[in-house]
Amino acid sequence: MKLALRIAYDGTVFHGFQRQPGIRTVEGELLRALVKLGIIEDPAKDEFRGASRTDRGVSAFFNVVSFFPRGRRELVRPEVLNPNLSDVWVLGVAEVPDDFHPRFWARSKTYRYYLVDEGFDLDKMVECAGLFEGTHDFSAFAKLEPGRNPVREVSSIRVLPRNGYYVIEVTGKSFLWEMVRRIVNALRFCGLGLLRPEEVEAMLSGIGRMRGKIAPARAENLVLWSIEYEDVRFDTGEGAHSREIENVKRQLFDRYSMNLSRAAIFGDWLVELRD
User: Fold this and answer.
1) Closest by alpha carbon to 148, among 124, 175, 173?
2) Among this protein's residues, is 55 annotated catalytic?
3) Residue 33 main-chain phi, psi, to 5 deg
4) What average pLDDT does the segment 225-244 reach?
5) What burial letters (b/e) apply to 172-192, b meaning 16+ CB within 10 Å?
6) How far apart (Å, rounded) are the C-alpha atoms in residues 157 and 172?
7) CA triple 77-3-240, angle to 5 deg
8) What is the pLDDT of residues 11-20, one digit of tens each?
């Protein structure tokens, strides 16, 4: 039977998800470990597939890969895989049907974007966010690929105020290239009074496209937060796996504390420059 892994990774240290010759990617890191341990032999023959090919700089708390293990199936456990991985963590394992594809079987995906507060008008951001919900042609809010239908359905967008920043949470079944990051920048412009709701409506209807597209927000603030499947449950396990989760938590806390310290340093610099 095919196996699926729930994975998390720090996208800021990778050149995207999809493997490329001579470049460090998430997929390449996973394949290196799986081949090294004898779990798979050939990505094509063993049907190695990913749910989302996140861009360079984009992280994930919940992405999924699947494959047919050709041997050593007993090694497909977080406590075995994680010590052989760097900047990628396996958080769960599931047995799935032979025809399972992590991208096509996904019922929905949720992205979160962490946006530093620049003095936004929250009401305007929420008003603009509502315009993106539903089915629209997102040509003005994506980097289009030949042959891909630009029509997508966004089931919900939430603007969540936090202390000093906002979380923009976008949920839908599938997304175009850079679509979430361009939507986020549109909300940012709305919150700053640089873009009006009627202009967003015009761009979604195709009227405003000739004036150019919205540029994407920076990739490093985006994370693939969750993917919903029907009848797929990732085993979080007990015992050794629970200890492995604690190890992952420690690694994530180290990164959190390092980045928080760096933010505090630059924040103090800004205060000094302002004064």
Assistant:
1) 175
2) yes
3) -70, -45
4) 79
5) beebbebbbbbbbbbbbbbbe
6) 9
7) 15
8) 999 999 999 9
Q: Is the pLDDT of residue 213 over 90?
A: no
**Do 208 and 196 sit in the same domain of this protein?**
yes
Domain annotation covers residue 244: no
Residue from 42, 46, 55, 117 carrying the catalytic annotation: 55
Are both 112 and 100 inside the same structural domain?
no
Total domain count, the chain = 2
Segments forming the whole domain that contains residue 198? 108-225
Tokens describing residue 38: 């004898």
Q: How many CB atoms lie within 10 A of CB 138?
A: 23
* Tens of pLDDT, residues 49-78: 999 999 999 999 999 999 999 878 889 999
Q: Are residues 98 and 151 in the same domain?
A: no
CB 62 within 8 A of CB 226: yes
**Identity (one letter) of the amino acid at 146?**
P
Of the candidates 109, 91, 101, the one whose C-alpha atom is nearest the C-alpha of residue 54 is 109
Contact residues for 29 (Cβ-Cβ < 8 A; gap 6+): 9, 14, 85, 86, 87, 88
Taken in order 260, 262, 266, 268, the sign of the CA dihedral is positive
What is the sign of the dihedral through the CA atoms of 219, 220, 221 and 227? positive
Q: Please give the full DSSP string across 10-70, using - where no structure is assigned.
A: -GGGSS-SS-BTTB--HHHHHHHHHHHTTS-S-TTTTT-EES--PPTT-EEEEEEEEE---
In a domain, 208, yes or no: yes
pLDDT digits (tens, 9 = 90+) for 131-150: 999 999 999 999 988 888 99
The span from the CA of 25 to the CA of 27, in Å, is 6
Placement of tokens 């029509």 in the chain: 151
Q: How many CB atoms lie within 10 A of CB 225?
A: 18
Question: Which amino acid is present at 184?
Answer: V
pTM higher than the cut 0.85: yes
